[in-house]
Amino acid sequence: NAGVTQTPKFQVLKTGQSMTLQCAQDMNHEYMSWYRQDPGMGLRLIHYSVGAGITDQGEVPNGYNVSRSTTEDFPLRLLSAAPSQTSVYFCASSLISGTADTQYFGPGTRLTVL
Amino acid sequence: GESVGLHLPTLSVQEGDNSIINCAYSNSASDYFIWYKQESGKGPQFIIDIRSNMDKRQGQRVTVLLNKTVKHLSLQIAATQPGDSAVYFCAEGGGATNKLIFGTGTLLAVQP
Q: Furthest-apart CA pair in chain B: how many Å?
């Protein structure tokens, strides 16, 4: 299994541009989530999904959209990038929904918004 | 609000020594705890977990201790190696949710 994969690894955007960060997992995990990691702060939850067709907001959802059309994929869309969205983004997945369980992380996407 | 914190932001140890990384959690309803290791430029990697019905769990060279009375979690690494140098995060979760709350991390620096 490849585990959790993310593309791209690095991205530079100009303010106002839009883009999609890709995340895929091949472990048949129900639960998937997106976090951002900023210096001196813990991982903060942006959006999550407990299964295909179901998404919900996390702690810091503003400026981001998600969809979950398949079990494997969970893309994160930045609608109009802002410098405050400069961060490292991690996608994670876990087997079981509805209970706290180990989340496995992808390698991350480092995003810079100018 | 609920939070997970670490007592020591940086821990420097000599190669071969044992390391202890501490974590305090504030939500007494949390029943699941995880330690992650994050190397520079990589995503967090699962190390070990423990549920609230246990107070100790051992893995390969690592031990997690849970003290629910004082809401404290620790990660012990035996015979620390240079490859253990990384940032270590604790996370807590609980109830009918997959949501985890992460601490800010402790940097473990292993001196040769």
A: 44
Select from B98, B102, B106 the residue whose CB has the most chain A CBs within 10 Å, as the one to mutate to test that interface.
B98
* Cα–Cα distance for residue pair A21/B46, rounded to 1 Å: 23
- Listed in sequence order, the DSSP H helices in chain B are none
How many angstroms separate the CA of residue B18 from the nearest CA in chain A? 25
Half-sphere exposure of B52 (CA within 13 A, CB side): 17
Give percent of chain A above pLDDT 70. Answer: 96
- CB-CB contact of A15 with A81 (8 Å): yes
**Using CA atoms, how far apart are residues A27 and A4, in angstroms rounded to an integer?**
8
Mean pLDDT of chain B: 89
Across chain A, what does the average pLDDT equal? 93
Interface test with B, best of A102, A104, A109 (most B CBs within 10 A): A102
Using one digit for the tens of pLDDT, what is the confidence trace for A57-107?
A: 999 999 999 999 999 999 999 999 999 999 999 999 998 766 677 889 999
By the 10 Å C-beta count (0-12 exposed, 13-18 middle, 19+ buried), A89 is classed as buried
CA-nearest residue of chain A to B103?
A42
pLDDT higher than threshold 60 for residue B5: no
